[in-house]
């Protein structure tokens, strides 16, 4: 059975120094940026996924250690392991994986960590039960819990269940962080792909679109016909 330290050692062996600098810049690790202080080894996601395929067995306690690691790639590898385990797990094991994810949100501290894992664990787990946790996180002071709350709803959107996504977008619509605005706009766009009328009504009801942050609106209407998109941007609807 593999350990957290063995996985970390394998990641370190695959480090590419040039990639470390690129990732540090791409994920905004400078002072005052959303990823301030995050550290990178310099390993591609493809390499991490290749490593996952070779992991035959690992204890949740070892994944918990890896999730709290200082290196971004260690945390992502741990979270991707959780996703893979969740898909095959029995109900009691699924609950344990879900619980570990929930108590680890302070370490799930980048948009890629959220987007690649939250829908498959949080969204899926809450599909047939109360989704109050999503609303709690939408109102959280933690940026990453806010993003988890909205991105997780893509699981329901794909099944034409838009209620929670629209409600959470309403909670987050005045959020000032661009990572939340982008996520909310993205989910609105996903709704529009499946039911244009639902998205259009949400945007135009009480002229809501005029009050939305520009980034959110641009993401939401990205796929609209150009003439209509321009009318939204110029408040002419």
Q: How would you describe the overall organization of this protein?
A:
With about 240 residues, the protein is mostly helical. It has 2 domains: about 1-110, Leucine-rich Repeat Variant (Alpha Horseshoe); about 125-235, Alpha Horseshoe (Leucine-rich Repeat Variant). The chain is built from 17 helices and no strands. The protein has helices at about 5-15, 15-25, 45-55, 60-65, 70-90, 90-100, 110-115, 120-125, 130-140, 145-150, 155, 165-170, 180-195, 195-205, 210, 215-220, 225-235. The longest helix has 17 residues, at about 70-90.
List the helices and strands and how they pair.
Elements (H helix, E strand, L loop, with lengths): L3 H10 L3 H10 L18 H10 L5 H8 L4 H17 L2 H12 L8 H5 L2 H8 L6 H7 L4 H9 L2 H4 L5 H10 L5 H17 L1 H9 L3 H4 L2 H7 L5 H8 L4
Helix pairs in contact: 1-4, 3-5, 4-5, 5-6, 9-10, 10-13, 12-13, 13-14, 13-16
User: Major sheet: size, sense and barrel closure?
Assistant: none
Give the name of the CATH architecture of the largest domain. Alpha Horseshoe
Number of domains: 2
Give the overall silhouette. Answer: globular
- Give the tally of β-strands: 0
Indicate the CATH class of the largest domain. Answer: Mainly Alpha
Average of pLDDT: 96
Strand content: under 5%
Taking the alpha carbons of the first and last residues, their distance comes to 60 Å
Instruction: Tally the helices.
Output: 17
Task: Classify the helix fraction into a percent range.
Answer: 55-70%
N-to-C order of helices and strands: HHHHHHHHHHHHHHHHH
Low-confidence runs of at least 5 consecutive residues: none
CATH topology of the largest domain: Leucine-rich Repeat Variant
